[in-house]
Design goal:
Length: 136
């Protein structure tokens, strides 16, 4: 079920940009009250993060018929694959909530879940790849 090199590169690049922009935004967000530069950086990082998320959504949509369905039918790497689908779904739902939800009660909870799952996703991705290569 190995992905074509160009698609794999695009997917890994989108995930890397999402991870780096999100992690860097966290740092800038903590400092934005004390520095105008940090405030500008936080805004720019959110724009980069949102743009990369749009690209990732396109790639994830293409991944379903190319990789997910085939892998499921072949009964390969199902647990890690299902976890990848779940984690990415949680990220999409919480991102939507963070962008559109006006509830000040839900927002901190969604933010914490989004950050936690976002930091866990690269680890899960490495596990998914390693298990997939081992079963090949």
């Amino acid at each position: 079920m190995r992905l074509k090199p160009a698609f794999r590169f695009a997917l890994y690049t989108a995930f890397a940009v999402l991870f780096v922009s999100g992690a860097t935004w966290l740092v800038a967000d903590r400092w934005k009250e004390t520095s105008e530069l940090a405030q500008e950086a936080a805004a720019d990082l959110l724009m980069v993060h949102g743009g990369a998320a749009m690209v990732a959504l396109l790639l994830l949509g293409a991944l379903v018929p190319l990789h997910v369905q085939r892998g499921w039918r072949a009964a390969r790497n199902r647990i890690a694959g299902a976890a990848m689908v779940t984690f990415n779904s949680v990220l999409v739902v919480t991102a939507f909530g963070l962008y559109y939800a006006g509830s000040e009660t839900l927002r901190p909870w969604m933010s914490d879940v989004h950050i936690g799952v976002g930091f866990a996703l690269p680890i899960l991705l490495v596990i998914h790849i390693a298990l997939g290569r081992r079963s090949a």
